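User: Show me an example of a complex going from sequences to structure tokens.

Assistant: Sure. Here are the input components:
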Amino acid sequence: MKKIVTLFLLFILLLSCEKEANVKLPEVKSQPVISSYLSLEDTIHRIRLTASQPLYEAASTFPGMPIEDASVSITGPGGNASFNYNPTDGYYELKSVQYPLQAGGNYQVKVKLKNGTEATAETTVPHQTVQILDASVIKMTSNNGVFFKVKFQDDPNRLNYYRFSLNIIRVTPSNDTIYVDPGINVMHSDISNNGATIELGTNYYNSEGDYGIGYEFYVLNISESYFKFYKSLENYTGDNPFSEPALIYTNVKNGLGVFGAYRSSKKVIWN
Amino acid sequence: MIRHNTMKVKIAVILLLSFHLIQAQVKHTISGYVTEAGSKENLPGVTIMVPKYKASVSSNNYGFYSLTLPQDTFDLIFYYTGYRSKKVTIVNNKTQSLNLELSPEQLEEVTVTAQQSVKVSDEAQMSSIDIPVEQIKQIPAFMGEKDVLKVIQLMPGVQKGSEGSTGIYVRGGGPDQNLIILDEATVYNANHLFGFFSVFNGDALKSVELIKGGFPARYGGRLSSVIDLQMKEGNKEKIKGEAGIGLISSRFTLEGPIIKDKCSFLISGRRTYIDALIYPFLKKESRGGYFFYDLNAKLNYVISDKDRLYLSGYFGRDKFYFNSRFTDSESKSGLNWGNATTTLRWNHLFNSRLFSNASVLFTNYKLGISSSQKFGSDFFNLNYNSQIQDVGVKYHFDFIPAPEHYIRFGLQSLWHRFVPQALVVKSSFSTENTKIQSTPINTFENGIFIEDDWKPTEKFRVNLGFRLSSFLANDKHFLNPEPRASMRYLLGKDFSVKASYALMNQYLHLLSNTGLGLPTDLWVPATDRTRPQQSQQIALGLAKDFAPKNITVTLEGYYKWMKNVLGYKEGASFLAVGSEPGADAGVDWQNNVTAGNGLSYGAELFIQKKAGNFTGWIGYTLSWTWLQFDSLNFGKRFPARYDRRHDISLVGSYKFNERIRLSATWVYGTGNAITLPLSSYMIEQHALPNAQSFEGFLPYNVNDYGEKNSFRMAPYHRLDIGIQFHKQLKRCERIFEFSVYNVYSRQNPFYYYTKFDSNFNKFRLMQVSLFPILPSVSWTYKF
């Protein structure tokens, strides 16, 4: 079948010609990009601030280079506070002892660049952490993979969004214990099963058969913006004329990126 | 007092009865068939006028008409575009049968009443266009292949899909929302060669009608349009033929009587020969090619004045193949698809006022993919099939009790059988042979309808209709009432205002994984997950006929809502999912699509000249089409890809003399709305607490696209011209045609993509265009 599609495309290309498009390109400005996930459980609140690069203009900076000289502040139930840039890790930071978050609180972050550009974003910190009722690892016989399963109680009073992820605990040859995130994300919203006992699961296969000595199961109760951003990332395929472009979610006004919040619950299982 | 009232009622009843009796006594019906002189081909849409009574009626699809009038002496005038009008004086009419022949107009005789056939301003029906088949043959075509669907694309309210394709988008609806029927049978995939040519061979067609709105109740099952094609019956008097040789295909048609005036046949075929031409140039070891062919055949028999039988069929196939043979291995692969339709129809006259047509029909669309490989003693064979098959009956009645009423009623019942996929893999590498057959789905689609074309006064005419449609799939049953109405009110001579309303339901979805109109697109029934699509449309318009000049002008505005239309999910890949049907037979196609709502509104201007030395039209469409899907563009509405603000078609054909005809078309359309990457940025995902290393991606480079479909491609425009030289030879007429597609070689965008230019450290937007200027020639011989 691929051969035939290729044949067809070849036929088309035989007749086709290619040149630079002669259309008015949209005027696009570089915009501030915020990546931030706040939590009551964190000791430091962090914000990554970078700039988007308009595609049809010569790139001026290395993509993903942090913007170092912006002023970044937060407003919420705890009042107003400023973040400071930490050049060692490239984040704007604020210690949580200086600015403790409140469960259910609504926070607004404001970024002001040197050129006067201002971007803002808002998020609500979820009310509570979830209680993980059960976490299990099932060995699959068919492909020697494993199936991770987690069970927890949903809060019936609110619309909730969840992310289920985990770290694999491994021991290095030098006998150090390390925590590896295998990039597993299961996103869920309780729209269809509010108040229920929710079970989420996913399978995992490691080609080297390295399943570590145990696992840290995380169930994050996340903000709507966090959820929508991750869901949009699941569909993202990049730029390809033969696929339907997937839009990446943003809740940043006058900018791009995501400003989210979460509450984290953990359960450890040993192999 | 009570007694007095009872008396009054009695008198009234007696009066009414006697009035009815008087009426019944003096009214008589004249009915019959109108045919073409020389061929006895039935003529649909002939207007029969009775000036004395200011009454008129048109002949139906089978050329039948019926007029019930008081006993009197009067004239009947038969009008049909391009034919000499005929006047028949009826003296002291009685119920009688009157079959009439009309002769085509010769150039010298154009002075004879150049009346139009059915006047658009007179019809209650709106948003409908008759496309004369002769005109289709005059319009210059891509590679010289005359194509009905591409002519339909030149009509206002209709847009084409991508360059060169036969995809049809009517009033914001998708290509799956068109009901394409050939002699009553549905054609599921009207494409040859991935949509560059349509399956309809103009030589075999008699009439083509396009309906965009105000759908009469006799049609149902699709949301956006009806394309009703009728095949010719075949000459009943003498053997006639036509043969054509073009750049990429050849065609022939033969028609004639089997029993003179009683029984005739028509057979018409077409085949491409690119494969045969390039065959000698290919390497012996690996040869590939492509061809398509189609065959139309019809047989009809006039049993008596009251009964006629028609048997018609269409069969077409496309085939791509690639074979290679080396000393130690051999491989063959192919892709073929095609439609087959068969219709048996029986016209029966119960009496001079009640006409019936019963059809039994069969249609099948099949896609097959095969691949076989041999390496020494090892082998691998794969066969994949998918198909949809309909067996159905339609029973329609035309009841014409008086010139003021034309009542149609009937029923139809279609049994659809879907076989979405059947896969058989045999190989020597594995002891187990794979055989996957998705369970065939049997569904029933039924409809009953009644409509009355009623003229309560001379100025007011209305077509009121009602259709009840039902669909039964597995255990799911849908039942939907569909009210229909259209009306016209005469504002002046040949000048009317019109309005219409139609509710439509569609129980079949086309799941497409390509957007290119590939034959792998799959028809599936509505289910709980993919509910039936529904549309409602209102339209308002003006129509004016300039009868002496054969010019018709219509201006229409429409507003259309659509529910449960399908769209691709974001990130759905057109080539990956399902492109390897064998490999992922388990993939559920429903996962690639999502349902939402659509809204389309706009205005259309159409100025058409159907007869005379100069014929053609001007079409202009101003329109907006919006889509709203919960799972696309974050729930916000966005313009459809084929949302086209302006669309213009100019089509003209001029006959200089008997020998030379010059034709040209020019089209312009606002560019398609697409989603374009605007900028790229690095976004950081949330690292889990404690995580020290990551097997996933944390900083992620993504593109910002702005809002969905917020960028416009460059506008599309193109000029085609063609010149035909007609020459009468000893035994036949020869037509030589030279035509040029895309005369000024406009590079219209097919698609865009971004390419990184490392010299300037930025991306460039690249445009791929398909067809530059393409000349073509063809010869046609008519005998």
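The lines above are the inputs; the final block is the predicted structure for all two components together. Helices of chain A lie at 2-15, 224-235.
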